[in-house]
Amino acid sequence: MRLPPDARRRVRIERITPEIDAGRWPAKRILGDPFRVEVDLVCDGHESVAGVLLYRPTGTTAWDEVRLEPLVNDRWHGTFELSQLGWWQYTVEAWTDEFATWRKLLDKKLEARQDVSLELQVGSEIVAQAARRASAQAGPELERVARILRSTRTARDTKIDAATDERLRELMAAYPDRSRSTWHDVVLEVRVDRPKARFSSWYELFPRSTTGSGNHGTFRDVESVLPYVASMGFDVVYFPPIHPIGTSHRKGRNNALVAEDGDPGSPWAIGDKTGGHKAVHPELGTLVDFRRLVAKAKDYGLEVALDAAFQTSPDHPYVTAHPEWFKKRPDGTIQYAENPPKKYEDIYPFDFDSRDWRGLWRELHSIFLFWIEQGVRLFRVDNPHTKPLRFWEWCIRDIQTRHPDVVFLAEAFTRPKLMYALAKAGFSQSYTYFTWRNTSRELTEYLQELTETDVGEFFRPNLWPNTPDILPEHLQFGGRAAFIARFVLAATLSSSYGIYGPAFELMAHVARPGSEEYLDNEKYEIKRWNLEDPNSLRPIITRVNRARRECAALQGNVNLRFHKTDNDQLLCFSKQTLDGQDSVIVVVNLDFYHRQSGWVELDLDALGMDSQETFQIHDLIAEARYLWRGPRNYVELEPQLVPAHVFQVRRFVQREQDFDYYA
Amino acid sequence: MRLPPDARRRVRIERITPEIDAGRWPAKRILGDPFRVEVDLVCDGHESVAGVLLYRPTGTTAWDEVRLEPLVNDRWHGTFELSQLGWWQYTVEAWTDEFATWRKLLDKKLEARQDVSLELQVGSEIVAQAARRASAQAGPELERVARILRSTRTARDTKIDAATDERLRELMAAYPDRSRSTWHDVVLEVRVDRPKARFSSWYELFPRSTTGSGNHGTFRDVESVLPYVASMGFDVVYFPPIHPIGTSHRKGRNNALVAEDGDPGSPWAIGDKTGGHKAVHPELGTLVDFRRLVAKAKDYGLEVALDAAFQTSPDHPYVTAHPEWFKKRPDGTIQYAENPPKKYEDIYPFDFDSRDWRGLWRELHSIFLFWIEQGVRLFRVDNPHTKPLRFWEWCIRDIQTRHPDVVFLAEAFTRPKLMYALAKAGFSQSYTYFTWRNTSRELTEYLQELTETDVGEFFRPNLWPNTPDILPEHLQFGGRAAFIARFVLAATLSSSYGIYGPAFELMAHVARPGSEEYLDNEKYEIKRWNLEDPNSLRPIITRVNRARRECAALQGNVNLRFHKTDNDQLLCFSKQTLDGQDSVIVVVNLDFYHRQSGWVELDLDALGMDSQETFQIHDLIAEARYLWRGPRNYVELEPQLVPAHVFQVRRFVQREQDFDYYA
Predict the structure, then answer these.
(1) Do B122 and A331 touch (CB under 8 A)?
(2) I want to staple A552 with a disulfide (CB 3.0 to 4.6 A). Which of A231, A241, A582, A646 is the partner?
(3) Closest Cβ–Cβ partner in B23, B340, B353 for A108
């Protein structure tokens, strides 16, 4: 009968969190985050157990460790700081703690006033063994205690004092016997990004529409609108593809099958004879202009994000240089994109089943490297769900290994499991279904799924009230109130959000009838936007973005909590920093047509507040201040004014000295 | 740049259920069970996917497979039958289904009335490739279809008929291209036990108390009470240890430190000079007598369960033959069991940290084999939580490999995680906290944890209203109503339960003051039980056990559901077989002193019933029948009569012919 090799390892390590799909995928965190790990340590009998959380930057060999501390019900926790970008590995080691077990028994016997002379001798041996494991300094100290415990000439009370000394407990914990410890089967990983991966405010604009005159804009023209974008408080300016646009099968205005003379074509029909994914559209300028724009943006606190749309126009140089990267139809033509009855003759998808898939993967990977060379560190990836998950996993990992500060946003609107699979594969942020979640219940359930489940470990939502592809119905008909409400929801429900502007702040709301597509869509034409429109939402956007910068609570999603209201049209939620120092309460009127009022029932426990506590709430939009007390508080929101409150909570804290002051 | 070896495998396999701790532990099922596996298959793009559930008895090499069928949201399921005892392995393989993807596109184009001539050519090639993979019979059939699809002389409609033929779909599904399939990383396991592991009714009795006269009973005397036990409907008769009892430090009546002359000692103080764990107490008889008893019991439909208590009296032969198996104290004495202030000088625990732990493990393992030789297949293991988990995992696996029909019941009352860890390690059934769960809420939450979570996959509860160690407070003071209510709860909440008799049915209820210990505990003395006592609960026990045999719903726990009542003292729950053919509704009055009445609000959806449906409920205890309709129904229970209903549901089923009849 074969005995198991791990027969004598007694502690079981179970239910580590975070652990995504049994450790197949890394959790995600931000530089400087304290990383908290929890785990069940289960051991037979009445043994005391001890353990450590082991951690190291991936690629290094030596483990650092921090002692696990007990919670309740055999659950333990440990925390370390993620002090550098990249990936970190972590796992858990645990063992039975002979000294602690012995101390427990000794204490019980002392309490029961039983004879402990034999126990003291047993303890002497345990301490002597630790002395042999200990450092040159601690060893003799432990040996001295061991001698006291076994000495026949020392008084019982002296021995007991020595045995129960706190210093001894510390020394014994520092030199445990780990020869029969258990390691968790799996080394887990956490991905550490720079802060922008979690907290970012995106502004999407078409560079060619920046002249205001209807002429094709250039990167220089984009420079001129940077102050406008920055003044609203955005920190990312994202451009649809800036590459040459194909002419074959170019789409006209409103997606017309045939383009008119002068129609600029869709920026997503990438490539013409002048170049493809590594070239700049000649009418926008040059690579030099682009790099200058990136630098200028930086001066305004804006980071440029590019669109990575891995598909080509029929005129892309790849089509002739690498015909094997595309699917051929039996008649010898290349298969264009289609979703019957729709045909996209101006777009060729890549064939990832190509014989030369290796060449294709390497080339696509090199596109990121190329733009990284130009100073770009943010990529919005177009339709990543139509490319193999394994490709993204490989590509993102490699890029981020070379450039740990690169952030990828997945623009996938697809099946839920695939959305999550992309995030697991490495995307730093993800588009969401927010755009189509309208009611209190829909928003609550969806955001709870994103933030209160495992999903929160790997999927960072980026909420968009609109995109060039989506003008949702509520914006078509809900008027200014809808725009403001949806904006506040996006900017406060999630620490990352974005708008497609200036269409958004100028409240463009006319759709092709019966659709969620913009009429006269900017994808197919150059727009003239009046940035000085007095009706623009610019002021309120500016105020909300300022609130986001000022309130640390709005810069993460972990403590998002929804609170009951007695009126279904009023959505109330709060956010809080992990340390509890900053709390924000948001109330939004989801009825864009009528005033709604009601009582919110705050879950004060979740906010770490007392049911008797009076606190000030400061509306960061309207700049009003109110005093609230207890859980039930009245709210009234008039959509024709501002349909939302964003309250920062200011608590009156009782200090030891009994002075009241604002925290 | 290294490309990943699995680059071209596109389907992700996620969230397989059942999967316990990432596959570390087997799920548990019963012989003949259909084994249903669910899994997420996630693939990029718009590819159709297909997959199989692979399975085989552990130890064999060839996989059997069954095709996975889609549910919703990328979830799939497959089922196979567990047709033999032992362990089965299972895993999932999945791939992109080129033909199904192509059919989807073809259908869309046909619907959009687009030209499909090129698609038919593409399809021809896909079918021709399958022909090369297919059997000698199917190959030519597929080749013929391929020819039709590419023929230039065949009419379009003929081709389309050929392409969309159901037979073709079946053939193509039968010969998929699995060259780029994905396998789940882990081969999972399920343990298959005989039915008794799930459905069992235990009766614990002390063999020595079977004379009725106060004289020491023998196995022959036990034979004489078998008809009594069997007549109540039990199917397991379980004995505390039947081995020689030590005399050193023997405990007297009521756990007295010093035994009087004639005190029989605790059966758990195992071993004297005549033998230990492989010997029979001389006063009970011989091994021959024991084997005869096992056979007799079988004649009565009873299976004998033995107690495996791995500890010794100071007189056990092991103590001299293997002193290294025990912990020595510094004064040279052997460490007895203790939990200060309590001392158990009559009991020596084994030292699993012994130098000769290998010898100890092997010897304990051989004890099971010894009793298996004598015909025993059920073991109740005493305090398994004080022995290493790894020991049980090894020991149970080995024993069940040799004897697949052996069932182990874990008698552990310890921390929740350790209870579960023992079940994962291999115990077939487990004692529970039921004994201390009293209120509606306590019972509901606990049973939901046991049956509605992952726990149900590996932990089979065995509910005991009393044991020789536990006379819970409600039985001390609740009178007959408490005994009946707790009995009905145990016997219906779980498919396995047990009582310590005749103490239970004779309602022994006097405890040592302030404790949950029986006064004059049978552990330390021979009892005289009057089995003919007219107040015995025997009749109602008999009725409830008959209901358990007649109602398949009571023979499993998967579909346990709790239903709301408007009276907290009324607990209502239902059970149903997986096929929905048998349903039982139980209502128990948890107030043992007063009549309680109220309305139950049945979750008819959970029972697969219509809110307008009239159905008969047949009380299997009182033999009364009622008609109920809809979810709200009135119940009144008088504790002085019978404090519980056990209703079998009889539905009036509308047949096609419009005749009403009883299902």
Answers:
(1) no
(2) A582
(3) B340
What pLDDT is attached to residue A520?
97
Residue of B46, B109, B331 lying closest to A118 (CB–CB): B331
User: Is residue B95 less than 8 Å (CB to CB) from chain A?
Assistant: no
Q: Does residue B34 surpass a pLDDT of 50?
A: yes
Query: Annotated catalytic residue: which of B33, B223, B346, B411?
Result: B411
- In sequence order, which residues have a C-beta less than 8 Å from that of residue A89 and are 6 or more positions away? A55, A56, A57, A58, A187, A188, A189
Cβ contact (<8 Å) for B74 and A118? no
Q: What is the distance in angstroms between the Cα of A45 and the nearest Cα belonging to chain B?
A: 4
Q: What is the DSSP string of A640-658?
A: TS-SEEEEEEEEEEEPTT-
Measure in Å the smallest separation between the Cα of B7 and chain A Cα atoms: 6
Whole-number CA gyration radius for chain B: 31
Residue-wise pLDDT for A282-314, tens only, equals 999 999 999 999 999 999 999 999 999 999 999
Inter-chain CB proximity B10 and A398 less than 8 Å: no
Does residue B274 surpass a pLDDT of 80?
Answer: yes
Virtual CA dihedral for B483, B484, B488, B490, nearest 10 degrees? 10
**Two tokens, residue B15:** 């969230």
How many CB atoms within 10 Å of residue B213? 10
CB within 8 Å of chain B, chain A residues 302-331: 329-331
Smallest Cα distance from B418 to chain A, Å: 6
CA distance B163 to chain A (A): 17
CB pairs < 8 Å spanning A and B: 157
φ, ψ for residue A78, nearest 5 deg: -150, 155
Q: Which pair of structure tokens corresponds to residue B233? A: 């409907």
- The catalytic residues of A are 382, 411
> Does A40 contact chain B (CB < 8 Å)?
yes
Task: Give the confidence band of B451 by pLDDT, cuts at 50, 70, 90.
Answer: very high
Q: At what angle do helices A117-133 and A156-163 cross, to 10 degrees?
A: 40
pLDDT tens digits for B609-660?
Answer: 988 889 999 999 999 999 999 999 999 999 999 999 999 999 876 544 444 4
Partner-chain residue, chosen from A3, A114, A118, that has the shortest CB–CB distance to B361: A3
- The reply to whether ipTM tops 0.90 is yes
Sequence-distant (6+) residues with CB within 8 A of A244 are A270, A271, A272, A274, A275, A276, A279, A280, A281, A282
Q: What is the 3-state secondary structure (H, E, C) of B213-246?
A: CCCCCCHHHHHHHHHHHHHCCCCEEECCCCCCEC
pLDDT value of position A60: 97
Give the model's pLDDT for residue A611: 87
pLDDT of residue A612: 86
Structure letter (DSSP) for residue B276: S
Q: Is the pLDDT of residue B465 over 70?
A: yes
The shortest CB-CB distance from A118 to any of B329, B353, B357 is to B329
Residue range B78-103: mean pLDDT, rounded? 98
pTM of the model: 0.95
Question: Distance from B589 to chain A by nearest Cα, in Å?
Answer: 32
- Is B1's CB within 8 Å of A73's CB? no
CA quadruple A309, A312, A318, A324: dihedral sign: positive
Q: Does A357 touch chain B (CB under 8 A)?
A: yes
Distances (CA, A) of B563 to B273, B580, B582, B601: 57, 17, 17, 6
- Decide: B58 and B192 in contact? Cβ < 8 Å: no
For residue A653, the model assigns a pLDDT of 63
Report, as ranges of residue numbers, the positions in chain A whose pLDDT lies below 50: 655-663
Residue A357 has its nearest CB partner, among B8, B331, B358, at B8
A115 touches chain B (CB under 8 A): no
Residue A274: both structure tokens together: 């002048």
The model's pLDDT over B210-234, given as tens digits with 9 standing for 90+, comes to 998 999 999 999 999 999 999 999 9
Radius of gyration of chain A (CA): 31
